[in-house]
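Thread: quick sanity check before group meeting

JM: Hey all, I'm pulling together slides for Thursday and realized we never actually wrote out the predicted structure for the chain we discussed last week. Dropping the sequence here so it's in one place. If anyone has concerns about the input, flag it before I start.
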Amino acid sequence: MFRAGVVGLISMVALPAFAATAEPQTEFLAKAQTTEVWSPEPVVVSPGLDGAPPSDAMVLFDGSGFDAWVGDQGGEPDWRLIDGAMEVVKGAGDIRTKQAFADIQLHIEWATPSVVAGESQGRGNSGVFLMGRYEVQVLDSFDNRTYSNGQAGSIYKQHIPLVNASRPPGQWQSYDIVFRAPRFGKKGTIVSPAYISVMHNGVVIQNHVPIEGSTEFIGRPQYKSHGAAPIKLQDHRNPVRFRNIWVREL
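JM (edit): ok, ran it. Output follows.
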């Protein structure tokens, strides 16, 4: 008797409640559909497997040659090819891509010499220059103190990396960079600065920071109006190696 009474009570409460919510639920879903966007549909990109670049990437260096690069003054780069990598040759000068870029995602792997020589800025020094003028520092920063806005992963003399994610000398390391180029007005005035995010060995070290202007060794950075420009790798007289370089235009 008690059991039947409970079942009856549940039926009296539950069934009317279900019936009452059926129509509002339909209306709720209809309202939700008004904010669904079906066009455009994102292009399908196949991510790379085992370190390979994604399907829409432009490969800038795969170890086979300097087809995508020239010396900073033009002509064939004088850097060395060794074991599937390119290596800075002291005094040979910077190298740059043949193609100019603006907004990009860039992947690049690098290694400082396994034999430690020098200290501070004299140890495994190079740089990745976006648009030929905004530098992400390359340096052996493993147990090697230098000024914080000049260590590996810094936006040189502008932004200190959030952490030091450096591996020991001689080991391969990676930068994954998302870069938004600066915007200039009709008269060459800066409308929006460049922004950059950097992952060092999979660790976020720069989180969408504004670049203050071109990289300067002495003095404050400043902007001068420019368009798309090549990516440049620096000869800082240390035998730093680079490999597996690819870029996606955004």
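AS: nice. Helices lie at 2-33. The CA atoms of residues 7 and 161 lie 65 Å apart.
JM: adding both to the slides.
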